[in-house]
Amino acid sequence: MGTMKWQVMLLFFCLSLGSAVGQVTYSIPEEMSKGSLVGNIGQDLGIDVKRLKSGKARIYTEDKADYIELNADRGLLLVKERIDREALCGQTTPCALHLQITLEDPIEFYSVTVEVIDINDNVPTFQKEEMRFRISESAVIGAKFVLERAMDLDVGINAVQGYSLKPTDNFILKLHNQQDGSKNVEMVLQKPLDREAQNHISLTLTATDGGEPKLSGAMRVDISVLDANDNAPVFTKKMYKVTVPETAPKGTILSTVSATDADEGSYGNVLYSIANTLDYVPSIFQISKENGVVALTGSLDYEKAQLYEIHVQASDDGGLTDSCKVIVEVTDTNDNPPSINIMSKTNSVTETSKPGTVVTIFNVQDPDSGENENGIVHCYVNDNIPFVLKSSTNNFYSLVTDNELDRERASEYNITVSCSDEGVPSLSSSVTLTLQISDVNDNAPVFDRSSYEAYIVENNTPGLSIFTVKATDADWNQNARVSYILEDSSVNGVPVSSYVSVSADSGVIHAVRSLDYEQIKYFQFRVKAQDGGSPPLSSNVTVKIRIQDQNDNPPQILYPVQTGGSVVAEMVPRSADVGYLVTKVVAVDVDSGQNAWLSYKLQKVTDKDAVKQRLTVIVEDNGQPSRSATVIVNVAVADSFPEVLSEFTDSPHDKEYNDTLTFYLVLALAVVSFLFITCLVGIISVKIYRWRQSRILYHSKLPVIPYYPPRYSDTLGTGTLQHVYNYEVCRTTDSRKSDCNIPEEMAKGSLVGNIAHDLGFQIKRL
Q1: Does domain 130-226 sit in CATH 3.40.50.720?
Q2: What CATH superfamily classification does 234-331 receive?
Q3: Buried (b) or exposed (e) across 573-598, using 16+ Cβ within 10 A?
């Protein structure tokens, strides 16, 4: 940059956008080389370089000009492309680039203005290299001749500041300031011409700017001196004003100018022309040479130019001229819709974002005039969405959340931002923003039932699938991934995990082992559904399992009961009538329902002996298939107990049983004798006592009919084979013909004998 200086103006202000806002202004000269420093934006705005990089800092320009770039690593603004102020702004002053720097997460934006300072890099130029005049020698002192103005693309002090005309023998310059800051140049006759002395005059018009160093341009002025033309054309009005809308079509007649010349002949013939050379007037307007009609030949644009000055010159054949101005005022029409420029936007926000969270920042521009309704813009968003627009100065808007968000209710929003002006007819434009709502784990899994109840038939195969629990989670992705967990509990003191298991992924409940209805008929447990969020959320449900019975147990005979090889006989008196109750067979089935309904039937009679009979009774349940148990009942027809004994003592089975019993008694006696040799006296006493009791039993006439409690159950009868029981009279080996003598006239309640001891019965057996 050499000795050039640049200035920085820094201004911070806060708006109602909920985001940081600041403004900084730089001034730089035009034509700076690529990569030149504009300013340290990080330092001037107080933004850390790390924030510039993490916030993805980027530059947005309203006019799409790409002259400035941001070096986020160093926090510097640099010249990206050479800036030509004249190409960028033309004659407009001041000339500035308006930039916005946006940051994300959180959204922030800063306004940057780069003012481009003009340097004197353009030479004043004339559109024509030469102007020719034909002036009568009779031209009066003070006659004026309009000269072409020089054009300098620079502005301010670097624009054209003065003119000079040399030599000055006959003519001098006269400058008139115009409304646009330029100067109208006239050549004024100060000394009479003499064609006979000099019929051709050559002058040089020089235009000089005020830059450093000064630059200049020149044009030749050739004058042919004619014979006398005493009167110059004169316009009827020095200024004409016309108003035209910017949408006026080509060919529109704007005005008609008129000038008269008092001379006659060719000297009185007036021709019209446009004398503008500094602007684009000749390309937009034209004038009829003969009748002075000013018409539109180009397109008007209020946003580019609101006022045009047409310099019209009238000249006769004698070279005398006059000039006037036609002021064309362009009025605005609503021909430009608002332009929506997105500066910064977020593609997604979390559903827990608080109201007021900034989603997008944008700028709205309407090239139409802001002084009337055409440039007044209103923006709005579509209805029934939780977003609103907040506006700030300079037509900046921020789109912010207005209510709580819920991804489960709406996971995506298509937000249409529409902006319309107040022109007639109104013009509008819109842009649609797609915003994703990212999920937060705010929903626990929900089971499809409040509780579950299932049935399983007992004796199932381990690993059998019983049924499935199902839970859904309204969240998304990992937060909606449901896992099933069997909660710890116990069933009759046993962990429930030893009965059932649950698949973590599918919720399928399996039986861990074979279940037995007779051991457990019903149990319940709880299953937890847990999602994959952080922290995870869960819910519970109660599961009830009911076990259904199978016919897997045969009936159990409770009475008559068989113990060992003893034979029990039911005694029937010889005088018994038909229908006499001999005995009852009592059985139970641990199954339930029809599996426990029992039926009894007499299968067969094993012999036809009138005194002794063996009856086979079958007890059968009602299951499918049915199961049964069999019991053998011995019936003796006798009037006294000794008769019963005599009927069953000769049985080979009794002999075998007595021999076995004798062996065990002798063995027990030997062991007891060895252990208690010192108690010999006591043993002898016991033997004497047993001998006395056996004598009493021998003389007894009581029948031996055993009795069992009605709820007595045979714990050995739980197998699956049919049961056969033999009941016969049981006695000791030495009691076949025992005598039991008692004296007569014994008192009531006197001891006759110990029948249990003498016959070898146990008390429980009786």
Answers
A1: no
A2: Cadherins (2.60.40.60)
A3: eeeeeeeeeebebbbebbbeeebbee
DSSP summary character for residue 637: E
Tell me the CATH number for domain 339-438: 2.60.40.60
CA-angle at 765, arms to 763 and 766, nearest 5°: 65
* Of the candidates 279, 311, 313, the residue with the CA atom closest to the CA atom of residue 298: 279
Residue 711: pLDDT over 50: no
Domain limits, CATH 2.60.40.60, in the chain: 27-117, 130-226, 234-331, 339-438, 446-548, 556-575+583-645
Q: How far is C-alpha 518 from the geometric centre of its chain's CA atoms?
A: 53
Please report, rounded to a whole number, the percentage of residues in the chain having pLDDT higher than 70: 81
Segment 434-451 shows an average pLDDT of: 93
- The β-bridge relationship of strands 508-511 and 556-559 is unpaired
Q: What is the pLDDT of residues 145-160, one digit of tens each?
A: 989 889 888 888 998 8
Nearest to 519 by CA among 540, 543, 499: 499
The topology under which CATH files domain 446-548 is Immunoglobulin-like (2.60.40)
CATH C-level class of 556-575+583-645:
mainly beta
Report the run of H or E that residue 194 belongs to, with start and end. Answer: none
What does the radius of gyration of the chain's CA atoms come to, in whole angstroms?
64
Spatial distance between the Cα atoms of 291 and 234, rounded to a whole number of angstroms: 14
Q: Tell me the C-alpha distance between 706 and 725, whole Å.
A: 15
Question: Between 20 and 96, where is the model more confident?
Answer: 96
Q: Which fold has domain 27-117?
A: Immunoglobulin-like (2.60.40)
pLDDT at 11: 38
Mean residue pLDDT across the chain: 81
Question: What's the rounded Cα separation, in Å, for the pair 291 and 258?
Answer: 8
Which of these, 482, 479, 516, lies nearest to 499 by C-alpha position?
516
| Strand runs labelled E in 515-663 | 522-530, 538-548, 556-559, 569-572, 586-588, 598-605, 612-621, 628-637
Residue 291: Cβ within 10 Å count? 11
SS (H, E, C) 366-415: CCCCCCCHHHCEEEEECCCCCEEEEECHHHEEEEEECCCCCCCCCCEEEE
pTM (2 d.p.): 0.52
Residue 71 pLDDT exceeds 60: yes
Residue 576 has pLDDT above 80, yes or no: yes
